[in-house]
Amino acid sequence: MSDPETPPLLVVGLVRRPHGLAGEVSVDVVTDFPGRFVPGARLVWRGGAAERAVTLRSARPHGTRLLLAFEGFDSVDAVRPFCGGELCVAEADAHPAPEGFYYGHEVKGYACDDVAGKRLGTASGLEITPAGPMLTVELGPGREALVPFTHPIVVSVDRAARRIVLDPPEGLLDL
Asked: How far apart are CA 37 and CA 16, in angstroms?
């Protein structure tokens, strides 16, 4: 949503398909804090331009996913429209990041400098990949680099200054 009055939403789950006949849905968890999925938790379901507030009635593990049920939705037909949508929380409701942990939305816009203080670019995202966390750095118009978000490449992150100091190996930013 682009409404400036609406707080930014963070995706915490992806609704895949109905499960059973009692209104449960299978959800891929995309948060580092799956403990947020408890009965009574309030989430925002988003599908395309549509949004609606939902409250969890139940949550239980099912393989690598969770099975969730929402208050007021007690049949497979009632939950089918949720499939393909996202479950979100307001950015203000995000769990405080533990020491040394950074959210992708948090580092967006941080200045990226080398150890000598030279501006390399601006962080545009941080995502978890099979190879580990990767920082996307916009180096200039039409140029970006993926930088492993690990020590010793990431020397420091200063939340207050919105600055990341990098010590990339030679050639990494040229790929």
From this structure: 16
pTM for the whole structure: 0.69
Dist. CA 163–CA 166, nearest whole Å:
10
Q: pLDDT (tens digit, 0 to 9) for every residue of the chain, 175 residues total? A: 445 556 688 899 999 999 999 999 999 998 888 899 999 999 999 998 899 999 999 999 999 999 999 999 999 999 999 999 999 998 888 888 888 888 888 899 999 999 999 999 999 988 878 888 999 999 999 999 999 999 999 999 999 999 999 999 999 998 7
The tokens describing 8, both together, are 């930014």
CA–CA separation, 78 and 65 (whole Å): 20
What is the distance between the alpha carbons of residues 67 and 87, in angstroms, rounded to a whole number? Answer: 13
> Which tokens hold the place of 144?
């970006």
Q: Are 17 and 79 in contact (CB under 8 A)?
A: no
Please give the domain boundaries of the chain with CATH numbers for all domains: 9-93 (2.40.30.60), 104-174 (2.30.30.240)
Instruction: Return the DSSP state at 175.
Output: -
| DSSP conformational letter for 76 | H
